Amino acid sequence: MSAIHPTAIVEDGAQIGENVEIGPYSVVGAKVVLGDGVRLHSHVVVGGKTRVGAGTEIYPFASIGLAPQDLKYAGEESELIVGERCRIREHVTMNPGTAGGGLLTQVGDECLFMVGSHVAHDCIVGNNVILANNATLAGHVVVGDFAIIGGLSAVHQFVRIGAHAMIGGMSGVEHDLIPYGSAMGERARLRGLNLIGLQRRDFSRDEINNLRTAYRLLFAQEGTMQERIDDVIALYSEDEGVMEVVEFVRTESSRAILQPKTANGG
Known about the structure:
Elements: E1 3-4, E2 9-10, E3 15-16, E4 21-22, E5 27-28, E6 33-34, E7 39-40, E8 45-46, E9 49-52, E10 57-58, E11 63-64, E12 79-82, E13 87-88, E14 93-94, E15 104-107, E16 112-113, E17 118-119, E18 124-125, E19 130-131, E20 136-137, E21 142-143, E22 148-149, E23 154-155, E24 160-161, E25 166-167, E26 172-173, E27 181-184, E28 189-193, H1 195-200, H2 205-218, H3 225-236, H4 240-250
Parallel strand pairs: 1-4, 2-5, 3-6, 4-7, 5-8, 6-9, 7-10, 8-11, 9-12, 10-13, 11-14, 12-15, 13-16, 14-17, 15-18, 16-19, 17-20, 18-21, 19-22, 20-23, 21-24, 22-25, 23-26, 25-27
Antiparallel strand pairs: 27-28
Helix pairs in contact: 2-3, 3-4
């Protein structure tokens, strides 16, 4: 049995799972699918072609699945998929995809979106991701598992944020951030590895030491990037975490790799 408040509007065609709660004055569109145990607090709007995974909770004044904020959007049917057991707090906005990005925006499981955060069209967000208050993702951003994006930060369109990465608050991120990396700044620069995050997630001392050595080699001043990549592979081809960083750097992208600030300020 599901509990739907009498003031809520659930349009014909919406698919509602078991034990769903829909609070006062919430609106659920005709193409929406709510999984088992989903809870919508009061004044939530879920529209468009949107699928919300089981156990996800959405707080008041969130707007989920309405038309993308993209001038190129021409009304094409696109989709938003939100994973299971996510927490979507007040005033969060999430938009579906566009024809220019595969017609899909996708959010993984067990994510936390704090007040006022935004996921734009065609973003792909992994599992266990946290967007703090008013953090925003522009279109086509890819965010890896366990990444954390600090409050009031903005990520430029087409940027990739690697798994286990950390972005400090009030940062503008214009370039790709490696897995396990830490970035911060008005125009963000790479600040090292997210060591606290790695420790909290029980990475071993050897795993962390290997990542630190690989980081120093990759971002050294000597040699070309390809030469430095070759040096890292020669040492750590069997280390899964290090090779994840290497593959991230080698993957073709429209954005450059975020670099650390050098001693001369460059």
